[in-house]
## 1
Amino acid sequence: MKSSTVFAEYVDLLSKHENTFECVQKAIELLWDSYQIARLEMTFQVPPNVFTPDGINTGGSFAMPGQVADEQLVFKKNYTTGEGGIVNVDLYRGYGCEAWNESEEVDLDMILNILFFHCGRFRLIQQISNSMLTDVVTGIPNTQGFLKRVEKVYEQDNITKYNSFCFNLKRFGLINRKFGKQEADDIICRYARLLLAFIDKDEYIGRLGGDNFVALIKKEKTEEFIRFLSGAATYGMLGEQQSTVILSATAGIYEIDDSISDCERVISNGAMALSIARNITKQPYVYFTTELNERVNNEKKILGSFTQALKDREFQVYYQPKVKTDTYHLIGAEALVRWYRNDKLISPCEFIPIIERDGSICNLDFYVLDQVCRDLREWLDSGVEPVRVSVNFSRKHLSNPEFANKIQNLLNQYHIDPKYIEVEVTETTDEEEQGLLSAFVNRMKDSQIAVSIDDFGTGYSSLNILRTFPVEILKIDKSFIDQGTDEETDRIVLSNIIHMAKQLNMDVVSEGVENWNQVEFLHDMECYIVQGFLFDKPMPKGDFEQRIQNKQYDITQIVDYAE
Ligand code: C2E
Ligand code: MG
Ligand code: MG
């Protein structure tokens, strides 16, 4: 070794730099005095492989400033990389110098070995960081990789040129089952290629995992991208057979504007709109809005506090009387839940749809039934004859095989005769649910617990329900009598529903009765049970106790809401 200090400096130089290419120039200058290398040429070829799907074909030429290379005096070396690639390095000595002697060539050999080693180290670091940012299945950026690109756009102040899309492939579960996991992965890969072919150089895509993707698309291409998402054709292999697959996606779109606070919003706002599109509106795409944001935050707040609120018994059961209009007699009541949070009332319309989606409604419904059973027990024990109380149950219960048993068990626990309880469920169009509902209604019939169909007329399966289920009571939705008193067609429909229900031995209760006109109209239709503000609003237990002590209404005291 000519100079061990130069050599040590050379090793130090290469080990401190992450990018070997960047420091070769410096290395040549460092080695000049000892070895007079005037030029270094390197070619680097690696065939496509898992880490570098497009392979590598690169090279570089580095020269000692102010020196000319002697094309005759060359020292050549080649290496094979781990993936079967080839690296060629040629060193040219400065013009006017003598050829390298044997001992110098040993040194050059060592110098190039060290260079090759560091090139490998550099590539390995690059591959590891790339693989952390790349989705293994498709080779497109993963969440982190996508965010890195978004950050670049953000730093360049260009982010508002774009809309972001979070999208989920429809029915991909079906494709998985039909083609198998391996082929489904290949289909996802092909889809990613279609996306790559769609986007421009300054647009970006990423795979968030599974069949969820994200894209940053220029605003002017929004419509075009929505069309792409509505159906992109690729194929899947079933054995030897090629089968066409049209992939369409549901999307959440975030129109990025100056209010964007951080890059992650590009994904999270899109994802929020996507979840609304998938779970609530069931539309192909939904735009993110601040109202949506507030709504989702409100939902989160409600879901976040619900469980503790239930433990803390923040829910109260109110009773709304049902009245017989031929005698003005109290004949039943509906239990309606009220949520008092920090002395403020949250309407069931506000929180029930939310806890229904997440399934927590089931706990609330049983909490209400439990409270109703306790109240009934108390009234019975004190010698007051109560009326039958109906309790609302979400259809979410239907998939629980223990649903009917749980109701029965609560009644047993409080020794409540089934004649005092009625279960209200809403109608359904879903065939599977109808099967479950039918089984449930039959179970209730065996236990002599009455079942009513709530909001009858607002769903679409109404007549089918009359035919198939042994329900005892129909509750006609308020919307029917709101319009029904005037419109001739509504009148005919309603009167037929009521007559049909009667012929099938069902009781009919009309909800939302607010004035005498409606009572009269219902009388004409021969519907004599009503529930509504005309007689009473839902009331706390204490007030309702007075009603059950004296079940007769004094109609001279009744305020007509129409007046
Ligand atoms: P629903 O079961 O159809 O209950 C009737 C709703 O109509 C009640 O609203 C009641 O206060 C209201 N209402 C009664 N008479 C009149 C009237 O004359 N005029 C008007 N404008 N409204 C009237 P509420 O108590 O706000 O409950 C809304 C819905 O929330 C209920 O509709 C029911 O679907 C649900 N809900 C309430 N409590 C429970 C519960 O414990 N479990 C479940 N699953 N759902 C419940
Ligand atoms: Mg109800
Ligand atoms: Mg109702």
## 2
Amino acid sequence: MESSTSSSCRCRVISSDRAGVVGRIAAAIWLAGSGTMVAADAMAAAQAPVAAQAVLHADQTGPTIAPEIYGQFSEHLGRGIYEGIWVGEDSAIANTRGFRNDVIAALRHIHVPVVRWPGGCFADEYHWRQGIGARTERPVRVNTNWGGVEENNAFGTQEYFDFLGLIGARSYVTMNLGTGTPQELADWVEYITSPSRSTLAQERRKNGHDAPWKLDYVGLGNESWGCGGNMRPEYYADMLRHYSTFVRPPAGQTANRVAVGPNADDYHWTEVLMANAAGSYDALALHYYTLPGGDWLHKGSAREFTEGDWIRTLAATLRMDELLTKHEAIMDHYDPARRVALDVDEWGLWHDVEPGSNPGFLYQQNTLRDALAAALNLNIFHRHAARVRMANIAQMVNVLQAMVLTQGDKLVLTPTYHVYDMYQAFQGATLLPLELDAPPYLHDGHSIPSVDASAARDAAGVIHLAIVNLDPGHAATLTVKIAGAQPHGVSGRVLTAPAMNAFNSFTAPTAVQPVAFGGAAVHSGVLIVSLPAKSVVVLDLN
Ligand code: AHR
């Protein structure tokens, strides 16, 4: 039931309203041939809203949307950590113990639930002992994955946990299975978590932290099918069984063990891991990036794109639903009780780097298109909440589809950040089944639903509805019949902009930001929402 907003109920061919629009355009064109066309008619026809319908089952209940679905990923990559989070205590940029105050405030505001660290590919070459103790004595290494730059290890274990405390997030530490030993892993777990007077726990105290930290999630390698060691799934399954044995937090503590999951549609990987090692982990983590240009060699510009690129990007984003559905089907076979989660600990839009920036730093701008893609993914994760219990967008600051971008002492909140802000009420809410019937948005040989939506009820009983209008050229009217509840009021916010590629720059940081939404009304259990073209709307129903 929780996955009931299936793609099948969103694929109905042109509804009568949309057919009417098409018919009016055709009539206008025909009249043009006869020399009597009124251009305004054609314009009005082209801009007429599409009509979508939904039934929201407020009388039913689905799974809890884990707050960790709103998780983040932060790797030693480019300016993600250094400059983006950590500037050092002596920096002229306002900071708390070396962490940027502006970034901390922005992240606190959206209640980041968990941060995955230190990688990514970086994790499988990271040796934790190099990042503890006096900063001046930490070794300088070369970041071989990301630009070959010097890594001075100024941000290590104590800085990571200090930073989590400042933003109020839980920990997710990825262990080194590529070049690290089981002993290193076991020692790091003990150093972080032990309340004892062991030599490692005393070393942590000597380094300034008396109380143990909490290790909430432990990643067992990263992309072991690729940068983490180019392993076959059979080999990685054995590695996993071996290394996970030594994840031993103290009595009374548990650490959720996250295994390297499949690369996009590698269903064989999931099959082998579920068949051979499912007892050794608590979650499998899928990686799937949306490549707007279609492949790794042609990712495409973040800011310069056509409507064809727009629809291709959103269609590729919607593929997340198919991937989750198929991996879940394999997992259901081995684990019908759904003990093991299917997390998505790397996802997002991966564009070409900003012109002029270091290609190894993966710095990209972030437009309204990124915001819609983020909202679509979050809606998909909600619908799969019975199995998807954590997701970590890549990456939190200055890298890929970031929440915030920094330049010197300046900071901008990206359109993606605003989606995370608008969706906050979904963290920990209970999914409500929603049947949605939206006409397709057609362009350039692609067909995707024009409207996507997701609903949930929070602990206070308030119903939240998130709606995306994917069509950049048409407003939409969504009529929602609410079964089992009679809300008397509705309020919310909308995120949109005049152009598909609108973005927030350091000179115009508020070009794309949410504003109060006045386009919804509820009466006698029926909600009617007038959605602007290319928009994200989040509503509260009281
Ligand atoms: O997020 C950037 C990189 O993408 C990560 O380091 C790696 O895991 C993935 O390939």
